[in-house]
Amino acid sequence: MNLKRRQFLFLSSLSTIGALGFLGCVARQSSKKADIAASTPAIASSAAKNDLLLRFVSVSDTGTGDKSQYSVAQAMNLYHSKNPYDLVILAGDNIYNNGEMEKIGEVFERPYAPLLKQGVKFQACLGNHDIRTKNGDQQVKYPAFNMNGRHYTFRRDKVQFFALDTNNNADWKNQLVWLEQELSRSDAPWKVVFGHHPVYASGVYGSNPTFIKIFSPLFAKYGVQLYINGHEHHYERTRSINGTTYLISGAGAGTRPVRRSAWTEYSAAKLSFAAYEVYTDRIEVSAIGTDNRLFDQGVVQLKAA
Length: 305
Description:
- The protein is an alpha/beta fold.
- It has one domain (3-301): Purple Acid Phosphatase, chain A, domain 2 (4-Layer Sandwich).
- The chain is built from 9 helices and 13 strands.
- The strands form 2 sheets. Strands 4-5-6-7-9-8-10 form a 7-stranded mixed beta sheet, with helices on one face. It has a 6-stranded mixed beta sheet with strand order 3-2-1-11-12-13.
- It is globular, with a radius of gyration of 18 Å.
């Protein structure tokens, strides 16, 4: 499907976004996966890994300023002390409830002060709550969010990241052209896209059929291995779908129920963040709760089998 056709289908169906329900079947997690939290000890320092290219974490739907946000932030700080990283993907809804910049101290600067003081860089995108005040323009200009526009790209070593504005009122026509151009010209072996809204999800809002039609073939064509998002207040990791793993780390300050779909590798309604270790041939993903224990581990392959 060519880009113009995809744009037409996408723009004509934007009104359906947000009106989606549950998808997938309800099933128990496998006993092996369910036992991870109980069997994995508290976070310890990583052994020396000479082939590690990059370590980063992701978190979303954080901006409440309440004790739940602080508990996740504290877990992120402890993980940093044992396994240093200097990059956080902040996938939207950075300021509740309405994106008011006067709250930035209580919902960002204070909770993450230990990380910010150690030079950890946050790369943000806009969520639906963020655009309620001045369409999120103040957040785009806020230096500590490091947003080079409403959609932008940056590179770390062999990983190129692409940040999207996935809101209904985004400039979708130009953004899709930009995304395809940037993906097509990228020579990075690892391509990671992030935005606020899910493509595949088993939570309150469920999967987005419009995004599936637009993004899945685009990601497959240009070799995007990982898409990270929030919006759903849970953790969920899919199996590889046409070469792309979809990961929700939206439980940065609160949780909502999550089910399980046929393509779900693991899901949990746990306050948490996700950590990623990038190697030449794989990304190792870890989900970490506020008890500082791993409750899911998975691998994203450079090239799906």
